[in-house]
Design goal:
5-stranded mixed beta barrel, 8 helices, OB fold (Dihydrolipoamide Acetyltransferase, E2P), 5-stranded mixed barrel, 28% strand
């Protein structure tokens, strides 16, 4: 005969069941830790995450990620895509760029539309998690400002970037090597676009024609492609970096690691086609240019 479960074991089982349904509640956080600690709490997170749809599930935590996770407590939400931890570290969320709270050029004033809404949505999500987050560092773990670059998850195991993108509070943006969630984040953004939510509503942020670029910073740009520089080996693989031009005005630089994500024929096939791309524009040597950071950031639109 099997021994009857102890009261502690019964409470542990009950805590798992409650966490699966009420994972966002602070009671769950408190009791899960008291019964079985962090490992038990993460198991409850994964159980709750299993209720997500197949399309969404890859944006949720899974047991396979346990060895890559770090736990943090949020000290402050700086803006819609950056947080400060109690440890003193800052995290720049991977996979998303939200409108700026501060002007990006001398002739701008005040926050960009929906910048405050994105910050408040992130604050609300952090508060609902009791300040607890889990994060997974990207292949490139820090940016030039020494912020951590990471996929950030709520205490319920939900990707925070996906949460914001689904509500139209940011643009998906990917970087080669730091794009583990790129496919599911694209799907999250598409749901907001289809529903005309947030920044996709009413022409609030229309794409900018390449010929109209007049300031630096993040932009979503459309234009017709001319292939300016492209080398391939005998197998059709791209050799080195590549350069495209949009509407004869905007240089689009593809660094080697991005260019080599394509076959040469794929890039050549873009010649003469209109594309939408996104990234950070700068002016160098008297010409506006954008460095493409991932194939996810460029899509043909005709």
């Amino acid at each position: 005969m099997h021994a009857a479960p102890s009261n502690g074991a019964a409470l542990q089982a009950a805590a798992v069941a409650v966490c699966a349904v009420e994972i966002m509640h602070l009671w769950c956080k408190k009791n899960a830790r008291s019964y079985m600690g962090r490992a038990f709490f993460l198991a409850a997170i994964w159980l709750a995450a299993a209720t997500a749809t197949a399309e969404q599930s890859s944006c949720w935590l899974s047991p396979a990620l346990s060895s890559e996770l770090h736990r943090g407590i949020i000290e402050r939400v700086i803006d819609g895509d950056t947080v400060a931890l109690q440890s003193g570290e800052k995290i720049r969320l991977l996979g998303i760029n939200t409108p700026e709270l501060t002007p990006r050029s001398a002739d701008s004033s005040g926050a960009e539309p929906l910048a405050v809404a994105a910050q408040q949505a992130l604050q609300a999500l952090v508060a609902s998690s009791g300040g607890v987050v889990y994060y997974r560092l990207g292949g490139q773990p820090r940016d030039r400002y020494q912020r951590l670059l990471a996929d950030l998850y709520s205490a319920a195991g939900e990707s925070i970037a996906a949460h914001l993108l689904e509500r139209g509070l940011g643009w998906q943006v990917a970087f080669v090597g730091n794009d583990q969630l790129a496919s599911c984040l694209r799907a999250a953004e598409q749901r907001a676009r289809s529903g005309r939510l947030g920044l996709w509503a009413g022409g609030l942020y229309p794409p900018l024609p390449a010929s109209a670029v007049a300031t630096g910073g993040f932009a979503r740009i459309i234009g017709r492609v001319s292939v300016e520089k492209l080398r391939a080996d005998s197998s059709g693989a791209v050799v080195g970096a590549a350069t495209l031009v949009l509407d004869q005005t905007l240089l689009v630089k593809l660094p080697r690691k991005v260019a080599q994500s394509y076959r040469a024929a794929q890039l050549q096939a873009l010649d003469g086609r209109r594309v939408e791309l996104r990234g950070w524009v700068s002016r160098r040597a008297g010409q506006w240019q954008l460095q493409l950071t991932s194939p996810f950031n460029m899509q043909a639109i005709d």
